[in-house]
């Protein structure tokens, strides 16, 4: 955890401290809720022009260990700094930390379109599929463009799933015009970009999945919720009392067996994230309902997610490389980025 240590040895950056009076939000704008905290949409009123922000708070019953882990995460975010494919830390409010309430407010860049997971599920009916059995089918007879988004190609399967209304986030389902494999590939490259930067900074994400990718108003994908300290805390709680949600469907074999995390285990999770993208948000290993020793044994014996309906064989090969049993044999994010750009060239 070298970068974690590096980040933690830096003093808390008080330039990022935001007075609570500058933060406006209320319960009406709750956009997410978890075991330890809530996420609100709010505004930062520092200048004449209020800035929309996402505010992550802790729940008042959070224990000290958890708060410590969360503060470490904030320091990791401060250490990571700015990158266009990473959700930006705008600031933090720590004034209530030492009070009775022991609250911490983390102020993040607001990503209007929410999580990639919810977006994919909500917009399935707008997806135009050009892939059949792993092959890209190019429409014939259109001299101007290989793809014609206005009309549905009659010989190809078209996903028609009704949009899901997201009751939890209370956010109106984002809708968009038709989109296709090119948008999916663009997202994978943006995420690989963000992850390449994190890996360069030697920061391990520890929970890379479509729920932790956020989309801006122009649909740029950004990596969020990184910093391993808090997750290691949650994961160790899980192994102790079985209550914490361990994201086992995304975890590499060595993480499941020994809670070993590295950039290479992030690469495994990136492969699962690709699988989510090219199934439009299906749950990985749909036939498996819970984590068992048998599941781990099956992974050891070579069980892997199957070819997603909307992925070409090239894309499936890329994700399969991420699931190499030996972490050192998995590609780097730099390599993945290059391979995905080649796929993008084929799709244009
Ligand atoms: O799809 P969503 O509305 O987008 O549901 C999740 C929820 O909070 C729990 O994580 C939303 N969320 C989290 N961080 C942000 C952010 N920085 N900007 C916008 N929405 C966010 C996410």
Automatic annotation (TrEMBL):
<feature type="binding site">
    <location>
        <position position="56"/>
    </location>
    <ligand>
        <name>ATP</name>
    </ligand>
</feature>
<protein>
    <submittedName>
        <fullName>Vascular endothelial growth factor receptor 2</fullName>
    </submittedName>
</protein>
<feature type="domain" description="Protein kinase">
    <location>
        <begin position="25"/>
        <end position="340"/>
    </location>
</feature>
């Amino acid at each position: 955890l070298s970068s974690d240590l590096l980040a933690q040895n830096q003093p808390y950056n008080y330039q990022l401290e935001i007075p609570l009076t500058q933060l406006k939000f209320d319960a009406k704008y709750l956009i997410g809720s978890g075991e330890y905290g809530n996420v609100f949409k709010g505004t930062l009123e520092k200048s004449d022009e209020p800035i929309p922000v996402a505010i992550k708070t802790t729940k008042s019953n959070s224990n000290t260990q958890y708060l410590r882990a969360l503060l470490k995460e904030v320091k990791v975010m401060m250490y990571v700094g700015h990158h266009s494919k990473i959700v930006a830390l705008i600031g933090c409010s720590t004034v209530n930390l030492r009070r009775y309430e022991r609250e911490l407010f983390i102020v993040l860049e607001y990503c209007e379109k929410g999580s990639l997971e919810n977006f994919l599920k909500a917009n399935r009916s707008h997806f135009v599929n050009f892939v059949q059995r792993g092959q890209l089918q190019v429409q014939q007879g259109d001299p101007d463009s290989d793809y014609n988004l206005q009309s549905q190609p009659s010989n190809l399967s078209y996903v028609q799933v009704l949009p899901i209304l997201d009751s939890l986030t209370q956010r109106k389902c984002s809708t968009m015009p038709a989109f296709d494999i090119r948008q999916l590939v663009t997202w994978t490259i943006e995420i690989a970009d963000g992850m390449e930067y994190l890996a360069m900074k030697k920061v391990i994400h520890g929970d890379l999945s479509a729920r932790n990718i956020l989309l801006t108003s122009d649909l740029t994908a950004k990596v969020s919720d990184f910093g391993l300290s808090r997750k290691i805390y949650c994961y160790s709680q899980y192994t102790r009392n079985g209550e914490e949600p361990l994201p086992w469907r995304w975890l590499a074999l060595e993480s499941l067996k020994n809670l070993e995390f590295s950039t290479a285990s992030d690469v495994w999770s990136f492969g699962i994230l690709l699988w989510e993208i090219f199934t439009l948000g299906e749950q990985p290993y749909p036939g498996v309902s819970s984590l068992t020793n048998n599941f781990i044994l099956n992974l050891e014996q070579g069980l892997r997610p199957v070819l997603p309906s909307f992925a070409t064989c090239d894309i499936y090969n890329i994700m399969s490389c991420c699931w190499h049993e030996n972490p050192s044999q998995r590609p780097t994010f730099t390599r993945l980025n290059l391979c995905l750009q080649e796929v993008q060239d084929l799709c244009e």
